[in-house]
Amino acid sequence: KQEVTQIPAALSVPEGENLVLNCSFTDSAIYNLQWFRQDPGKGLTSLLLIQSSQREQTSGRLNASLDKSSGRSTLYIAASQPGDSATYLCGREGGSEKLVFGKGTKLTVNP
Amino acid sequence: KAGVTQTPRYLIKTRGQQVTLSCSPISGHRSVSWYQQTPGQGLQFLFEYFSETQRNKGNFPGRFSGRQFSNSRSEMNVSTLELGDSALYLCASSHGTVYNEQFFGPGTRLTVL
Q1: Per the CB < 8 Å rule, is A46 touching B56?
Q2: Which of B102, B68, B105, B81 is nearest to B12 (CA)?
Q3: Residue ranges of B 57-86 with Cβ closer than 8 A to chain A
Q4: Phi/psi at B61 (nearest 5 deg)?
Q5: Residue B52 contacts by C-beta under 8 Å, 6 or more apart in sequence?
Q6: pLDDT of residue A3
Q7: CA A16: distance to chain centroid?
Q8: Helix and strand element counts for chain B (H, E)
Q9: Would you call B47 helix, strand, or coil by DSSP?
Q10: pLDDT confidence of B105, banded at 50, 70, 90?
Q11: Span B49-74, mean pLDDT?
Q12: Which of A43, A98, A103 comes nearest B56 by C-beta?
């Protein structure tokens, strides 16, 4: 069964800190790896999509990398802000299930 | 460009009833996927529809069903509701080919009493 694991489950940092969120998956047969953020009680907002042929994607203060051989993706957030506080989810696409998600990392950025 | 819309946003039902949720994808998108999100299990894939055909299916009982119309709008139906069906139901749309970004709606919060 395809599994996606996100570490840590929760993270609390002071404003301005750079941070890394981790996502690992068990099956290297992957089409896409997509990072999302979810605010409490809301839907998912797409942050970055990395296709299997790519190694990384960048958008503003966010950078995501993908290493298929090791089954890992990381989301790097530079100069964190209180508005970055949310749950971050990674979703792996590559099989009969459209997207398989990790349980997420709940990020709190303290002013 | 309008995003993915879901109706209703909130629903309260009792055990044994049935419910229908609706999802309108982004204009031009032909794929609609449904997910269930609970605190215990996280996000789990229910099924995907593409051009009015179910293309992929997750591991949920037959009480969960769906369909897609010619305008790509999709509905999800849950029959004989159980307490454990209480969840946030999310739909996502995309163009439907591989390497496509998934865009999610705001979700429907279903509470089963």
Answers
A1: no
A2: B81
A3: 57-58
A4: -65, 165
A5: B67, B68, B69, B70
A6: 87
A7: 19
A8: 0, 11
A9: strand
A10: very high
A11: 95
A12: A98
